[in-house]
């Protein structure tokens, strides 16, 4: 008989309200789901349809509904997947003459659709006619990048995303109005969409099991002025959902699925949810910050050892002594390729209205400790601390809960226009480069900012200031991404072409030269033309 692991035993004996209902029915963790388990769910829940989801080239969560008329049909669908038109899903990359693809469900992703009680849903992978991963599919590119990193370094990359978004609604009661740009961690009654956020977190927690927390963000706006009838006159509240670290492929899937859940919940409340990088001058934009951690055998290796701390102290190495050399290589790799990563993480013109000084958004390639104006921030990681509750609860004398290393580094450049899977694939390639080349340590040393506004340090490399500039940078560095066949050249060409179509070279200078009213009107046109790009 197979050995029952400790995790499985815990799963069998503990049921939480937010655990995945499919896990409860199968009585096992999602990673162990089999086809028989899923057929049992279909029977028990009287499922009428299986819904396949997958990420298209536009970064959105697509769907294909397959009715379940009998057990044999359900088993065939789960075993073999279905055909789709790749030339429509990957327009501009796949030719119509060879466009058929298979979509095959990932059993571990199974969830009961919160918006359709008779549907069992899956995230799928794209396979070509030979049964191999389709090389141009964003999720395939990410899988290849993650495999390259592990094969070349023996390490794994975990990531978590901070997903910021605005909820736009008809102006509610004027009672307890939240001040403009003062919404950070605000509570009811000053913010009005808290119940909607609870619903979002409920669904995402049950589906992914990876939500860390959610809260109100800085951006609040009493009334939006826009030429777009979808949002004109509405009030805006900004929210954030942050996830737990997961293997980088799972992180990407969760972020794309989360956008789908958030938009559906907002729609059912007669509201609009947007991840647009910017919706108004002087109001915080929507970032999609990405934290990464490197692990070996499942254990975080971002914290320094005692010999590493001693070496850093002797050499005057910049930055916190709590970071391992591995972590500094990660930082060096990200700094080296940060300019080209904007091609995947900042894909519309409005993105470059967010990357401006004094908005907690980076403008230069640098890193720092707990500095939100730096491109890469090293957040608190409980270094040398444990059982902090005992310091504020006098009666607490219980033993501390064992904790794995939690240190991450946060890339603050990406925003809500990011092509999620391609961005994380690019980040993975940059991290692998940093781990493989000693030059990354030199780059990290030069890019460190000890304190103060990051953009004030002289000699820092500037980030691109437009989509067109990002495209030029990607073209120069495309070999880094295309090596070992990770990014298909046709995919790189597509991304560059998409960026160049924004035609925004010199945008900020042109806007600055306009009279104030004209500048604001033109700026709003740029910000509001891509409310739902990805």
Q: What is the compact description of this entry?
A:
By secondary structure, this protein is of the alpha+beta class. The chain folds into 2 domains: 6-134, Ubiquitin-like (UB roll) (Roll); 146-379 and 407-528, Creatine Kinase, Chain A, domain 2 (2-Layer Sandwich).
Largest sheet data: 10 strands, mixed
Average pLDDT across residues? Answer: 91
Which structural class do you get from the secondary structure elements?
alpha+beta
**Percent of residues in helices:** 25-40%
Low-confidence sequence ranges: 1-13
Counted beta strands: 16
What is the annotated CATH architecture of the largest domain? 2-Layer Sandwich
Q: In whole angstroms, how far apart are the ends? A: 47 Å
- Would you identify the CATH H-level superfamily of the largest domain? Glutamine synthetase/guanido kinase, catalytic domain
According to CATH, the fold-level topology of the largest domain is Creatine Kinase, Chain A, domain 2
What's the CATH first level of the largest domain?
Alpha Beta
- The proportion of strand residues reads 15-25%
Integer tally of domains: 2
Rounded to an integer in angstroms, the radius of gyration calculated over CA atoms is 23 Å
């Amino acid at each position: 008989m197979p050995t029952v692991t400790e995790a499985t035993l815990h799963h069998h004996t503990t049921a939480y309200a937010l655990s995945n209902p499919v896990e409860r029915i199968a009585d096992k963790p999602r990673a162990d789901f089999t086809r028989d388990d899923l057929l049992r769910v279909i029977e028990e829940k009287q499922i009428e349809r299986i819904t396949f989801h997958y990420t298209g080239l536009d970064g959105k969560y697509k769907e294909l509904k397959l009715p379940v008329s009998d057990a044999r049909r359900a088993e065939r669908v789960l075993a073999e997947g279905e055909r789709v038109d790749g030339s429509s899903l990957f327009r501009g990359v796949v030719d119509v003459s060879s466009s058929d693809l298979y979509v095959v469900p990932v059993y571990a992703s199974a969830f009961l659709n919160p918006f359709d009680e008779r549907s069992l849903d899956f995230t799928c992978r794209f396979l070509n006619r030979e049964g191999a991963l389709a090389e141009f599919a964003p999720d395939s590119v990410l899988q290849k990048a993650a495999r390259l990193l592990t094969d070349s370094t023996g390490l794994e990359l975990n990531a978590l995303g901070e997903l910021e978004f605005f909820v736009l609604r008809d102006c509610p009661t004027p009672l307890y109005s939240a001040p403009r740009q003062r919404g950070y961690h605000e509570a009811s009654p000053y913010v009005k969409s808290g119940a909607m956020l609870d619903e979002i977190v409920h669904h995402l927690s049950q589906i992914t099991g990876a939500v860390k927390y959610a809260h109100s963000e800085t951006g609040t706006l009493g009334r939006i002025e826009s030429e777009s009838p979808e949002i004109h006159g509405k009030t805006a509240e900004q929210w954030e959902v942050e996830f737990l670290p997961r293997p980088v492929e799972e992180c990407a899937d969760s972020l794309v699925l989360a956008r789908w859940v958030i938009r559906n919940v907002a729609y059912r409340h007669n509201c609009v949810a947007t991840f647009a990088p910017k919706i108004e001058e002087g109001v915080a934009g929507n970032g999609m910050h990405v934290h990464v951690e490197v692990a070996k055998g499942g254990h975080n290796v971002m914290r320094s050892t005692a010999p590493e701390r001693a070496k850093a102290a002797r050499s005057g190495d910049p930055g916190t002594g709590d970071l391992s050399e591995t972590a500094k290589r990660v930082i060096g790799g990200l700094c080296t390729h940060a300019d080209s990563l904007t091609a995947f993480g900042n894909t519309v013109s409005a993105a470059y209205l967010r990357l401006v000084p004094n908005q907690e958004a980076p403008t230069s390639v640098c890193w720092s400790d707990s500095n939100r104006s730096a491109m890469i921030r090293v957040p608190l990681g409980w270094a040398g601390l444990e059982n902090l509750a005992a310091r504020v609860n006098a009666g607490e004398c219980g033993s501390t809960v064992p904790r794995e290393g939690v240190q991450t580094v946060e890339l603050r450049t990406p925003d809500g226009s990011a092509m999620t899977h391609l961005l994380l694939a690019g980040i993975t390639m940059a991290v692998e480069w940093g781990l493989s080349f000693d030059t990354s340590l030199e780059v990290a040393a030069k890019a460190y900012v000890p304190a103060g506004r990051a953009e004030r340090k002289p000699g820092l490399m500037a980030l691109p200031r437009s989509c067109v500039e990002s495209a030029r940078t990607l073209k120069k560095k495309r070999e880094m991404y295309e090596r070992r066949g990770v990014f298909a050249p046709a995919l790189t060409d597509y991304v560059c072409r998409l960026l160049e179509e924004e035609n925004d070279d010199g945008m900020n200078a042109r806007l600055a030269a306009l009279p104030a009213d004209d500048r604001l009107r033109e700026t709003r046109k740029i910000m509001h033309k891509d409310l739902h790009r990805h």
